[in-house]
Amino acid sequence: MDLNTVLDVRDARRREPWRPGDAWLGGGTYLFSEPQPHIRRLVDLSRMGWPPLSWQPDGSLDIAATCTITELSRFGRTLPATAAPLFEQCCRAFLASFKIWNMATVGGNLCNGLPAGPMISLTAALDGTVLLQGQDGATRRLPVADFILGAGVKDLKDGELLRSVRLPARALDSRTAFRQASLYGLGRSGALVVGASDPADGSLAVTVTAATTRPFRFWFPLPPGAAELREAIDTAVRPDEWFDDIHGLPAWRRHMGLRLAEEVRRELDPADPAYPAYPADPADPAAPAAATGPEVSR
């Protein structure tokens, strides 16, 4: 839609003082989707010329904030790494048209901070860190799981720019498991859980997103048992941190988050033989409906 409050668009390569009403423009798929009455000027990042994806000397991978979903998907399909399938799985979790894929950026998805943001799921699960740059040129780095503070709430100062996301080499070598649930066959993620098993030390990380207001990453030095994983999630996630909107009630999201986390744990724990579906918890009010209702894609 037209943003009739915007008075100017400037090239980000031309440094000018940041002022009230300024906003960074990446792909613009969110900015132009609804009124933005507080914005007076857009600072366009599209001509910065940042390489979408670049390898670092230590084997880590940097994803530029301006990297599009199309570029990330194409890269993931040719990536010679164990965790490569997760890139495409999270890209597909967008459930967006090719037009959105060609414009939407990784940085924009992170900076929106929405619970169902699949780039948040991908980068948090692979222990990613964001590089933030202030107006004075100073930089700081934060884990993705700490950058997102709540639904739509980020640790961003006024005028600060998300420059890139770094995924460590060790995480790219991890064996991963992906689970997503929605109330509809092609609906927004109501729960998205990713497991990452580190072959170097046998540790397991389970990351819960979409069901919660912010990403929760649980790291275990050795694969946990079912009870240990469930207790860790229920202890860390407060009742008000299970997200509540039209795409799922908190009780259902908690049930699905716990269920998918257990499926991920079983898939990645070689010492725990797989067995049929996650048993319903009689004390869980969402269990009966969840057993027959929502579709779980794998």
Describe the protein.
By secondary structure, the protein is of the alpha+beta class. It has three domains: 8-44, no CATH class; 53-170, Uridine Diphospho-n-acetylenolpyruvylglucosamine Reductase, domain 3; 175-297, CO dehydrogenase flavoprotein, C-terminal domain (Enolase-like, domain 1, 2-Layer Sandwich). It is 28% helix and 23% strand. The chain has helices at 69-78, 84-92, 98-103, 106-112, 118-125, 144-147, 169-172, 226-236, 250-268, 287-292, and strands at 8-11, 22-25, 41-44, 53-55, 61-64, 129-133, 139-143, 148-150, 153-154, 161-167, 175-182, 191-197, 204-209, 216-220, 295-297. The protein has a five-stranded antiparallel beta sheet with strand order 4-5-10-6-7. Strands 14-13-12-11-15 form a five-stranded antiparallel beta sheet, with helices on both faces. A hairpin with a 2-residue loop joins β8 and β9. The radius of gyration is 19 Å and the shape is globular. 39% of the residues are buried. Residues 271-291 have a biased composition (Low complexity). Residues 271-298 are annotated as: Disordered. GO terms for molecular function: FAD binding; oxidoreductase activity. It comes from Streptomyces subrutilus.
